[in-house]
UniProtKB/TrEMBL annotation:
Residues 448-523 form the AMP-binding enzyme C-terminal domain. InterPro entries: AMP-bd_C (IPR025110), AMP-bd_C_sf (IPR045851), AMP-binding_CS (IPR020845), AMP-dep_synth/lig_dom (IPR000873), ANL_N_sf (IPR042099). One of its GO terms (biological process) is fatty acid metabolic process. This is AMP-dependent synthetase and ligase family protein. Pfam families: AMP-binding, AMP-binding_C. NCBIfam families: PRK06187.1 (NF004837). PANTHER family: ACYL-ACTIVATING ENZYME (PTHR43859), BUTANOATE--COA LIGASE AAE1-RELATED (PTHR43859:SF4). Belongs to the ATP-dependent AMP-binding enzyme family. Gene3D superfamilies: 3.30.300.30, N-terminal domain of ligase-like. Residues 17-400 form the AMP-dependent synthetase/ligase domain. One of its GO terms (molecular function) is ligase activity. Keywords: Fatty acid metabolism, Ligase, Lipid metabolism. The lineage of its organism: Bacteria, Pseudomonadati, Pseudomonadota, Alphaproteobacteria, Rhodobacterales.
Length: 547
C-alpha cells in the first residue's frame, strides 16, 4: 500500500536546517570562558556546525562515534550539539565538576573518540589522557593557544578545526532511531549510567515539551538556560530554541546571582531556566545589583523541589512567574510542567501559588502512574503516595552498554521518586525514595520540612535528612545554611513547624552549616549530609557531641 502522507525522519539535522533557513539572523549571545561576550546568530551557529561535521568526517570520525564535551554553556558548545548530532555522531556531554576518577570511568564506558573541552580543563585532561585509550582527538574549544598546546600532545583547536570544514556540508541521511546524544546520571549511588537519546526521542521531546502548557517558548523570547548543557541537554532548550527560533543567551561558566542578574538585564531575557539554588542566588544578585529585570517574565525551575517562599518573592518583587518542572536524565528530561487549568484562572494569587507548587502535569507523550511496593497500581486521588513510574516517547528503555531493560515487566520505568497524583493529573514529588524519612513505620517528606525552614527570612537554604534513631529507626534532622550575617537559633526554626506539620513530624534537631554541600548540578548532596549528621541522634554520638 502506498503511504498516504509523507514520512520524513525526525532528525536533528532537520532542526538545524529549519533554524538556519528561517531564523538565521536571530541572535545567539554567549559569555565565553574568557569572560568576553560574543554575539552571532543562528545562521552562523549552524554554518559552523556544518563545518565541524565535515571536519570531523575528514578526520575519520565515523557515524555513531561518541564525541564528548567538557564545557560550559557557550556558542561553541551549541555548535557542537548541532554539528555532532547533525553529522550522525553522538554528542556526549560530561559534567566538568565530576571527580577525575568518574570522568575517566564515563569516557571509557562511553568509548568517546573525541573530546571537546573548554580551556580550563586542558590540564585535567592532560593528566588523565593516558587512562582514556579510546580518545583519539582532544579539541580545545577556542582559538590556537601555544601555552595550552604545550600542555597536551596533539591538542587541536576548535577554531582551526572548523576552518578546515565546509559550511555547505549537507547532513547525512540517517534513520530517526539512530542515537544523537548521550548523558550520564550523576551516580550519587554507584557508577553513573548512560542514557542514549535518539534523534526521534529528542525531536518528540522538543515538539511536545514546548506546547503552550509546556515550556511555551516562541520566536519572541530571549531565553537563557542557566541549567548547564551537560545537565540533560540543558533540559532540551537548545533544541527547543532552534525549533521556534528564539534568541538564545548562553551564560558561560558563571552562574552566580550577580552575573545572571546583569546578563538578564543586558540581553532582555524573557525566560530563564535553572535549579532552585540558581534562583536563590539570583534573588540575592538582584538585591545586590539592583539590575532592572522587568524583561524577565518566566523562570522555569526543576531538578529539586521549588521552595514555596520563592514563588511569592519572584512574583511580588519582580513580576516573574516561576514555573515548576520535574524530570530526570532518564526522561530527556521533561516529565511534567506545572501550568494552571482553566478552572484555576479566577483563583486568588495565593490559591494559584499553592496549586503551582506541584511538580505539574505530563505533556502528551508521557504517561505517569503510582504503584505500591508490591507493584499494585494506586489511585490518582492526590493523597495516596506511591512509587512514581513513567513511560513515553522520550523515556529510557535500556541504559547505555547494558543488556537488560531498565523497565518493569509491563514496560514502565521506575523513577525512584515517591509521589502523589491528583484527579486533575497534578503530580507532587513527596521525596526521593532514598531520602524519605521512615520514622516508626510512617513516612516524613524531607521536601516539606525543607520548605518550612527555607521560608524563614534568615535561612538561605536547608536540607532535611533521616538520622538514625534508637527507638524510631529514623527521625528528621534539618541542616540549615543561614544568610550571610543573619542569626537564627534552633528554637526559632523549630517553632516554624508548629501547626504546619503534625507534631510527630517536627524535626528532632536543627543544625547549622556554613555551606550545604552541592553536587555538580546544584543539588544538595544528602548522602554527604547523612554521613556527617546521620548519627547525631544516637546516644553514643549525642553524648560525644561538643556542647
Ligand atoms: P540526579 O539528581 O541523580 O543528579 P537527575 O538530574 O536525573 O539526576 O535528577 C532526577 C531527580 O531529580 C528526580 O528523580 C527527582 O528526584 C529530582 N527532581 C527533579 N525535578 C524535581 C522537582 N521539580 N521537584 C523535586 N524533585 C525533582
Amino acid at each position: 500500500m502506498q503511504n498516504s502522507m509523507m514520512h520524513l525522519p525526525l532528525v536533528i539535522g532537520s532542526l538545524a536546517d529549519h533554524v538556519e533557513r528561517f531564523h538565521a539572523a536571530t541572535e545567539v549571545v554567549s559569555v565565553e570562558t574568557t569572560g568576553e561576550v560574543t554575539r552571532t546568530g543562528w545562521g552562523a551557529v549552524i554554518g559552523n556546525a556544518r563545518r565541524l561535521a565535515s571536519a570531523l568526517e575528514m578526520h575519520g570520525v565515523m557515524q555513531g562515534d561518541r564525541c564528548g564535551t567538557i564545557a560550559w554553556n557557550t556558542r561553541r558548545h551549541l555548535e557542537i550539539y548541532f554539528g555532532v548530532s547533525g553529522g550522525g555522531m553522538v554528542c556526549h556531554t560530561l559534567n566538568p565538576r565530576l571527580a577525575a576518577e568518574q570522568l575517566v570511568y564515563i569516557v571509557n564506558d562511553a568509548r568517546d573518540r573525541v573530546l571537546f573541552i573548554d580551556r580550563g580543563f586542558v590540564p585535567t585532561i592532560a593528566g588523565l589522557i593516558d587512562q582514556m585509550p579510546t580518545v583519539k582527538m582532544v579539541v580545545m574549544m577556542g582559538a590556537r593557544d601555544e601555552a595550552l598546546a604545550a600542555q597536551l600532545d596533539g591538542l587541536q583547536f576548535y577554531d582551526e578545526l572548523i576552518a578546515q570544514g565546509d559550511a555547505a556540508f549537507q547532513w547525512p541521511q540517517i534513520a530517526e532511531t539512530e542515537p544523537s546524544s548521550l548523558c550520564y546520571t550523576s551516580g550519587t549511588t554507584g557508577h553513573p549510567k548512560g542514557v542514549l537519546y535518539t534523534h526521534r526521542s529528542t525531536l518528540l521531546h522538543t515538539l511536545a515539551g514546548n506546547s503552550p502548557d509546556g515550556l511555551a517558548l516562541s520566536a519572541r523570547d530571549s531565553v537563557m538556560p542557566a541549567v548547564p548543557m551537560f545537565h540533560v541537554n540543558a533540559w532540551g532548550v537548545p533544541y527547543i530554541a532552534a525549533a521556534v527560533g528564539a534568541k538564545l543567551v548562553l551564560p558561560g561558566p558563571k552562574l552566580d546571582g550577580e552575573s545572571l542578574a546583569r546578563l538578564i538585564a543586558a540581553e532582555r531575557v524573557s525566560l530563564a531556566l535553572g535549579v532552585p539554588t540558581v534562583w536563590l542566588g539570583l534573588l540575592q544578585g538582584l538585591e545586590a545589583t539592583g539590575a532592572d529585570v522587568s524583561c524577565l517574565k518566566r523562570a522555569m525551575v526543576g531538578g529539586t523541589a521549588l521552595p514555596p517562599s520563592m514563588i511569592a518573592e519572584f512574583r511580588d518583587r519582580y513580576g516573574v512567574d516561576l514555573v515548576h518542572l520535574w524530570g530526570m536524565t532518564e526522561t530527556s528530561p521533561l516529565g511534567t510542567v506545572n501550568q494552571l487549568l482553566q478552572k484555576h484562572v479566577a483563583l486568588p494569587p495565593e490559591a494559584q501559588a499553592e496549586r503551582r507548587l506541584a511538580q505539574g502535569r505530563p505533556p502528551y507523550g508521557v504517561q505517569l502512574r503510582l504503584v505500591d511496593s508490591a507493584g499494585h497500581v494506586l489511585p490518582h486521588d492526590g493523597v495516596t503516595q506511591g512509587e512514581l513510574q513513567i513511560r513515553g516517547h522520550w523515556i529510557v528503555d535500556t541504559y547505555y552498554n547494558k543488556d537488560r531493560s531498565a523497565l518493569t515487566f509491563d514496560g514502565w520505568f521506575d523513577t525512584g521518586d515517591i509521589a502523589t497524583i491528583d484527579p486533575d493529573g497534578y503530580m507532587v514529588i513527596r521525596d526521593r525514595s532514598k531520602d524519605i524519612i521512615k520514622s516508626g513505620g510512617e513516612w516524613i517528606s524531607t521536601v516539606e520540612l525543607e520548605n518550612i525552614a527555607i521560608a524563614h527570612p534568615a535561612v538561605a537554604n536547608a536540607a532535611a535528612i533521616a538520622a538514625r534513631h534508637p527507638k524510631w529507626d529514623e527521625r528528621p534532622v534539618v541542616i540549615v545554611q543561614r544568610h550571610l550575617r543573619m542569626e537564627v537559633s534552633e528554637e526559632e526554626i523549630l517553632a516554624c513547624y508548629k501547626g504546619k506539620v503534625p507534631n510527630w513530624q517536627i524535626p528532632d534537631r536543627v543544625l547549622f552549616i556554613d555551606n550545604l554541600p552541592l553536587g555538580a548540578t546544584g543539588k544538595v548532596v544528602k548522602a554527604r549530609l547523612r554521613e556527617l549528621y546521620g548519627e547525631v541522634l544516637m546516644p553514643e554520638t549525642a553524648e560525644a557531641e561538643p556542647a
